[in-house]
Amino acid sequence: MNNIQSIRGMHDILPTETPTWRWLELQLSELLDGYDFREIRIPLVEKAELFTRAIGQGTDVVEKEMYAFADRNGDLLSLRPEGTAGVVRAAIQHGLLTTPGLKVWYRGPMFRHERPQRGRQRQFHQFGAEVFGLAGADADAELIALGERMWRRLGLAERIRLEINSLGDRDDRQRYRKRLLEYLRPRIDQLDEDSQRRLETNPLRIFDSKHPATRAIMAQAPLLADALGDEARAHFESVCALLDGLGIRYRINPALVRGLDYYCRTVFEWVTDDLGAQGTVCAGGRYDDLVSIQGGRATPGIGFALGMERLVDLIESLGTEHPGGAQVYLVCQADPVEALGLAEFLRDHLPGLRLACNLGGGSFKAQFKRADRSGAAYALVLGEEEVQQGRCQIKDLRGDQPQQSLAREELPARLARLLPDLAPA
Length: 425
Ligand code: ATP
Ligand code: MG
Fold this sequence. Notes:
This protein has 425 residues and is α+β, with helices and mostly antiparallel strands. It is 37% helix and 21% strand.
């Protein structure tokens, strides 16, 4: 019988890869804590209607990419393609929006049925943050400052740049849409097929086309930036002024439109040139109408989501390693209770230690082979003699420090000194 394989575009994250993921998740969650965010955990499955209403009928995500299905009761459900709609649902449902300034983050898998390629999976992972009840430009600026600090913390500051734009308010976009259609309709024959279809459903998205002829047309198109109302323009200018004041560099990209209908005013993307075609690692913006679209009391919102796979890819392409696996391997040629006992003693004293205790016996030679393969930096060696004397040998597996015999009580402090990220309990 054939082995059953995973679904196309849905990947296993293997034990060799998870250390980088965990490191990244730790950095991100600590950083968000530092900006007074709290974690929220929401279901992977929601009513399909939640996403069609929030994200918009004419968007790629809903029209082409969403996993929607009828469950056994005939209810139309969807695997979440993104996190914001679910966070907004939860915030309304649990009355979290009554005090302004709710800040939450989430993380986890998202599902979109698109063509798998580098930087594009069908199950991928996002880390996202949302801020509610704050309409002012300071909230936008803080969220962007957080992003910048994130790249610095991850060692990616040189690799990632910021692009921003304003989508204006709903009336601005409606007015602009008319103007854009007037420009595009006479040129419809020169647009690619996808863009021709979008002309009636979502003409702003034509700016996203990769088609050269279409791009040439769009390069001459009227710009949303020139159609902004006074309020949206003032808001955007304040955001830019705050970013200038904070010394955050950005490029205003008038063609940045974002793929989901709920965005308004500030939108932004953090982009890298190091990942090929899928270079947007993080994207976000304001969604002041979304809470009311979902039936809550009108509450402004702003947030972002970053693609974990793309970030991990970027971190790995820089050759940064986040080792996992054992630091110390305990080799034993005595009653197993001695090895297990010593291992527990060490774990009592060094809770952060990654310790592998040789299981299944074997000759010293076989055990040292396993110790070497484990990647551990040091081996502890316990023979009959050591057991009798209450001592243990410590052997440097990677360098040339001489093997040493230590009393059992001395071991925790010695290991803490040898392994710099370990502190004794
Ligand atoms: P793209 O233009 O790359 O399709 P998007 O506008 O659809 O992105 P968002 O919905 O804003 O993406 O999602 C935020 C981030 O999540 C993206 O910037 C990207 O890093 C990541 N992302 C989106 N779709 C995928 C996917 N299919 N596979 C991997 N990462 C993804
Ligand atoms: Mg997309």
